[in-house]
Specification:
Oligomer: single chain
Strand order of the largest sheet: 1-4-3-2-7-8
Helix content: 40-55%
Length: about 220
């Protein structure tokens, strides 16, 4: 069924829409991890809530949710609240790392993920992995809709929020003009092409590959 625009019955302020405990939500990402859209679901109805440019509004709503009323929300909204809260703490504590993700044969993007080598971060990550519904995140690839493994689903959701915070932070960095490519790749999720290296030059880590991409 093709998603319809929110009709008059559902033209609610976003905050009120989240209050509807019977509404479930799905987050749609482009294959490279960028925010595509958010949809609401109720029985056999489905509506478009917001697309790409609405991510910042989405974050604002999540921040306004009352923790004492989480039991009134659907499992998807409940999980989104805690995933977003965790992402905020990761950003505040700088407990996140860049990860180079291959999206095509020679194309890569940088996404920001939790620093799972930190014991406390790993512990909370595993707890959240159990409460995130399996269909909360959907990826778009060509004409396919892909569901992901629970661990990757949570990592992708956290990356979605962390990418936004890193992007906001990057806007305040006084980069020189020569740093434009680095700014776009690391702070705006611009894809970069990785050229094949000669036999004499081999990358042994993601950091070396990132350097090669930007050179």
């Amino acid at each position: 069924m093709k998603p319809k625009e929110i009709n008059k019955q559902w033209q609610l302020p976003l905050e009120e829409a989240f209050e509807e405990g019977t509404l479930d939500w799905t987050i749609h990402l482009a294959y490279q991890g960028g925010f595509e859209a958010a949809y609401w679901h109720k029985e056999d109805e489905k509506g478009l809530l917001g697309k790409k440019e609405n991510l910042s509004s989405f974050l604002t709503v999540l921040e306004k949710l009352n923790p004492s009323r989480l039991g009134h929300y659907s499992p998807s909204v409940f999980a989104l609240y805690w995933v977003h809260t965790f992402a905020k703490h990761l950003a505040t504590k700088a407990a996140y790392l860049p990860e180079l993700v291959q999206i095509q044969t020679d194309n890569y993007v940088v996404r920001w993920i939790p620093a799972l080598l930190i014991k406390e971060v790993k512990h909370i990550f595993k707890i959240l992995e159990k409460i995130v519904p399996p269909n909360l995140l959907i990826r778009h690839k060509a004409n396919q809709l892909l569901y992901t493994h629970p661990e990757e689903q949570l990592k992708a959701l956290l990356a979605l929020f962390l990418n936004e915070y890193v992007h906001q932070y990057g806007e305040d960095i006084p980069f020189q003009s020569k740093d434009t490519d680095m700014l776009e790749v690391f702070f705006n999720q611009r894809s970069a092409r990785y050229q094949s290296l000669s036999p004499k030059r081999k990358c042994t880590s993601h950091s070396e590959m990132a350097t090669e991409i930007l050179s």
